[in-house]
Specification:
74% of the residues lie in helices and 6% in strands. It has 417 residues and is mainly α. α3 runs antiparallel to α8, α8 runs parallel beside α16 and α12 packs antiparallel against α13.
Length: 417
């Protein structure tokens, strides 16, 4: 048994110090938590605290190397938050809950390693919100600010529950948009592959037959054979060019100017714009609602919402609106002045400001645009099928007409009836 000095925070907020005997440091932590205290620091009597501090400093110094490896995806963050919320609601202390999560998956998953680091930071005296800020790639500013509001109000478990609802809504919305765009993408890719195979493998066989007839071919046939010849002998260069253009395009839209241009295009393309716009508006309303319901100041909530909008055009308008906010409370007017957000949205926000129930108004806006998103997705998928059928029919029809006109001309020349 070893003797440990500890500092902890009692349930009433008092800072206490003491000593206890335990087999190791982890056992000492559990003993402090069983007493109902939140451990802040635990050092073995005899001067090992410096070594522990040195180790902690080294861990902080090398954490940036581990951040990418331990980055959690949105779905993993949702599961982590739900489990932490359930453990706290069951009466477990924060340190014990994080220690429990750190043991999941043998401690080797990104969520387990993140929970372990958060636990160690809390033991060293950091607040949970500050510890979360050390993992910006897993926990966005919205997450840390809501936790900070929960710590200030003493309702951490409630805030975590709201975060779970927020992430479930956002992920559900993303999945609906992804599913709506997956089907046309697959059809288009398969259609292009089919046409390329036909041009490279099938059409050249007809070319051999037509060359043996020594006759003037119709214009559609000559165009078809020219395209087939180009794809057969120069298709590899076309593919390389497309790959290079794709790389250049992807890099371009990651630049501030390129991203703003691309996000603006997505808001103007028929069929697509309805899905993108309503998704962005619903995300904006839900995020702002979650922040304001947890006591985050208006200007700070707008800043966080700007960073999580998911569209550069909307983010830029939110930044301008934040600069136009003067009294720190009224935001519907500055948002309406930019003429980017729908009048219906800003009018409903104005009503929420007048009645003093801004969170309720934002909840109504979020539900309205989520329902509209569902309708736009149904319209998109319904209209997409006949559009794809027409496109495929045009390509197949051109190939068929090009070949058949040449065959009819050849047979008429031979006098076959």
């Amino acid at each position: 048994m070893s003797n440990f000095n500890y500092k902890a925070r009692a349930k009433d907020g008092r800072r206490i110090e003491g000593q206890l005997d335990a087999a190791d440091r982890r056992t000492a932590l559990l003993a402090i938590e069983r007493m109902g205290h939140m451990p802040l620091s635990v050092t073995e009597a005899g001067g090992r605290g410096k070594a522990g501090a040195k180790t902690a400093a080294g861990a902080r110094h090398s954490w940036w190397k581990m951040e990418d490896r331990d980055r959690m995806k949105a779905r993993e963050v949702l599961l982590f938050t739900a489990e932490l919320s359930d453990l706290l609601a069951a009466g477990m202390t924060l340190g014990s809950a994080l220690n429990c999560l750190a043991g999941h998956g043998g401690g080797q998953t990104p969520a387990a390693r993140t929970a372990s680091d958060l636990r160690d930071r809390i033991v060293r005296g950091e607040a949970l919100s500050d510890a979360l800020a050390a993992h910006p790639k897993s926990f966005p500013e919205l997450y840390a600010n809501m936790i900070r509001a929960g710590e200030a109000s003493g309702a951490l478990a409630s805030v975590l529950s709201r975060l779970v609802i927020h992430y479930e809504r956002i992920l559900d919305m993303r999945e609906r948009i992804f599913m709506a765009l997956t089907y046309p993408a697959i059809v288009m890719v398969l259609g292009v592959i089919t046409v390329v195979i036909a041009m490279v493998k099938i059409v050249p066989q007809f070319k051999k037959v037509f060359d043996g007839m020594h006759m003037a071919l119709p214009l559609p046939t000559r165009i078809l054979l020219a395209v087939s010849h180009f794809l057969t002998y120069y298709g590899i260069f076309l593919l390389i060019g497309l790959v290079l253009c794709s790389i250049f395009f992807l890099r371009y839209i990651k630049t501030p100017f390129g991203r703003r241009w691309w996000d603006g295009v997505k808001l103007r393309v028929p069929l697509i714009k309805g899905i993108i716009a309503t998704g962005v508006y619903a995300n904006f309303a839900r995020t702002l609602q979650t922040l304001m319901a947890n006591g985050v100041p208006v200007l700070q909530a707008l800043k966080i919402t700007e960073q999580t909008a998911g569209n550069a055009v909307i983010s830029e308008e939110l930044r301008r609106a934040r600069e136009r906010v003067t009294d720190g409370t009224t935001i519907s007017g500055p948002l309406a002045a930019g003429k980017v957000f729908p009048p219906m949205m800003t009018d409903m926000m104005a009503i929420g400001e007048q009645t003093g129930d801004m969170a309720g108004a934002l909840d109504h806006i979020g539900r309205r645009y989520e329902n509209e998103l569902d309708r736009n997705i149904k319209i998109f998928t319904t209209a997409l099928e006949p559009i794809l059928i027409v496109m495929v029919a045009l390509v197949v029809g051109f190939v068929a007409i090009s070949i058949l006109t040449a065959v009819f001309k050849a047979t008429s020349g031979l006098g076959i009836k």
